[in-house]
Description:
Distance between the termini of chain B: 24 Å
Low-confidence stretches of chain A: 1-26
Structural class of chain B: alpha+beta
Mean pLDDT of chain B: 70
Strand order of the largest sheet of chain B: 6-5-4-7
Number of strands of chain B: 7
Number of helices of chain A: 5
Shape of chain A: globular
Radius of gyration of chain B: 17 Å
Structural class of chain A: alpha+beta
Order of helices and strands of chain A: HHEEEEEHEHEHE
Distance between the termini of chain A: 43 Å
Shape of chain B: elongated
Strand order of the largest sheet of chain A: 5-8-6-7
Oligomer: heterodimer
Number of strands of chain A: 8
Amino acid sequence: MINSLTRALSGAMGATALVAGAFVSLASPAAAQDQVIISGTVQPGIWIDPDGCMHWVADGGIEGYMEGRVNPENGMPVCLDVNPCGVANTDTMFQTGSARLTASGRAHLREFFQSAGAFAYAIYGHTDSRASDESNMRLSDRRAAAVANVARSVGARVAREIGYGERRPIAPNDSAANMQRNRRVEIVCYR
Amino acid sequence: MLKRTSFILAICLVASGCVESISEGAVRNNTPAGQPNVVAIAEDTGTDGGPLSRLEAGIFIDPDGCHIWMIDDGLEGYWSRRLDPRSGLPVCTQPAPPGSVVGDFSSGSPGIEDRVPRLN
Lengths: 191, 120
């Protein structure tokens, strides 16, 4: 125990010395740019949460470190598709350009929300890239709201309902099949 | 991110019989000469050890009502925010009041009793 304490103390003093060194090199900005002091390395693992999203995790002996992994391009969490709680193609639930649910679409959704068993749901509407961005935003908003209303009608709690229009495609809008994939309502179950 | 263990170490120093502080996996001295020290790794090498990918989390509902994954892995404690996988937004719908922990966050850690200091 004393041994480990000595080590911890000398480690702490080493860190102080490094901070002092970094301070000195910052006094000259040009030098600070070429001289990055690497004070240690971390070899993190990945922990995957129940939603499928990744977190960096490392054990430093007595300390533990964890932070969510994000996509450097857009800041979004990096997640595996482990919880496909609901992605519905909107072609089967709505007429083209309409936010009125078909009878079969409504019945399907009602059944889904009655059996999914989450404590809340997030509902996201998406379109393909035809028509204007503005009208797609409006349409996806109204479609998300229509789905959310079915959820509420069977007593499910809706945490959020958002229309993203054509702005978050899952495929390039370069073929009929890809555009169909982009026309969708995503339902995320909060369990 | 959470660093909670300094409290517990302080308690270990006062009360004798704290085995965990010795065997809690020092990883700082195993680096080849000339290389930066490895200060943290993907495995808990202590008495309750194992790969960190196997941790089990509960949900802590923060004072704003938003969810944080919470794991107690013996001496180490971990917090990381829950984000909606599709929108990237925080999850803030409450299954319980702020301050609550929902689910088993103890990660099945054997043998390490937590003594949490009361702040008031």
